[in-house]
Amino acid sequence: MVSAEPWLVVGLGNPGPSYAGNRHNAGFMVLDVLAGRVGGRFKAHRGRAEVVEGRLAGERVVLAKPRSYMNESGGPVKGLRDFFKVPVERIVIVHDELDIPYGAIRLKQGGGDNGHNGLRSITKSLGDRNYLRIRFGVGRPPGRMDPAAYVLKDFSAAERRELDLHVERAADAVEALLTDGLGAAQNVFHAS
C-alpha cells in the first residue's frame, strides 16, 4: 500500500565544485543518480536545500541535497521534514562511512553517529535518531592520516574506476529500501 506521506531522501555532502569529488560527497553523488531516475533536476528550496520531487520505484519522494556544510546538515533536514510533513521513519540519509570498506553499502535504522558530524547535526535537529541510513563505504584513511582530512580528499584514481558502479548500487539500495523494506534490502546489499 502506497502511503500519502512522501519519503525524504537526503544525500549528505558539502556544497560547491571544490568538494564535488570528495569522499564526503558520496551522498550527493547518489542523489544525483536518483534525480536522474525520477527525471528531475535539483531546484532551490526555501529549506536551505536543493530538492527534486517525483516518484521513485512507485513511491512519492522528495530528494534533497542540503546547501549547508556537512556539519550543519540538521537544520536543512529538519526544515524539509517540517515542510513536507515527513515522519522520521520515512527519512533516509545517504552518507559516507569510514568504518565500511570502500564500495560496500550498508543499511540501518537508528544508532549513533559514529563521529560523523553530519549525522550528529541531523540527530540533534530532529531530536530523534530513528531515521534510516544508507551507508556508503569509503574505507579507513591510510597510515596516520587524519580521518577528517581523508574524507575531504577526492576518491583516488583506483577508486574512481569503480565509483560509478558503487554509486549506482547505493541508488539501487535506496529504491530497495523504499519498496521492499529495511530487512529485505539488508539481505540483498549486505550479502555482497
Automatic annotation (TrEMBL):
Marked site positions, Stabilizes the basic form of H active site to accept a proton: D96
Stored InterPro entries: Pept_tRNA_hydro (IPR001328), Pept_tRNA_hydro_CS (IPR018171), Pept_tRNA_hydro_sf (IPR036416)
Cellular compartments annotated: Cytoplasm
Similarity annotation: Belongs to the PTH family.
Record: active site: H24 (proton acceptor)
Subunit structure: Monomer.
Enzyme class name: hydrolase
Annotated tRNA binding sites: Y19, Y69, N71, N117
Major subcellular location class: cytoplasm
Reaction it catalyzes: an N-acyl-L-alpha-aminoacyl-tRNA + H2O = an N-acyl-L-amino acid + a tRNA + H(+)
Function: Hydrolyzes ribosome-free peptidyl-tRNAs (with 1 or more amino acids incorporated), which drop off the ribosome during protein synthesis, or as a result of ribosome stalling. Catalyzes the release of premature peptidyl moieties from peptidyl-tRNA molecules trapped in stalled 50S ribosomal subunits, and thus maintains levels of free tRNAs and 50S ribosomes.
Protein name: Peptidyl-tRNA hydrolase
Source species, domain of life: Bacteria
One family name in Pfam for this protein: Pept_tRNA_hydro
Gene3D superfamilies from the UniProt entry: Peptidyl-tRNA hydrolase
Annotated positions for site Discriminates between blocked and unblocked aminoacyl-tRNA: N14
Lineage: Bacteria, Bacillati, Actinomycetota, Actinomycetes, Streptosporangiales
One MF annotation (Gene Ontology) recorded for this entry: hydrolase activity
PANTHER family, per database record: PEPTIDYL-TRNA HYDROLASE
PROSITE patterns: PEPT_TRNA_HYDROL_1, PEPT_TRNA_HYDROL_2
